[in-house]
Amino acid sequence: MDFDVIFIAGPQGSGKGTQGKKLADKLGFLFWGMGGMLREIMKENTPLAQRISVIDRGTLLPDDLIIEVLKAQLPAIPREQGIIFDGVPRTVGQAEFLVPFLREQGREHMATIFLDLPREESVKRLLLRAQHETRVDDTPEGIETRFRYYDEMMAPTFAYLKQETKFITIDGRPSVEEIEKSIEKDLLL
Question: 3-state SS string over 66-101?
Answer without folding.
Answer: HHHHHHHHHHHCCCCCCEEEECCCCCHHHHHHHHHH
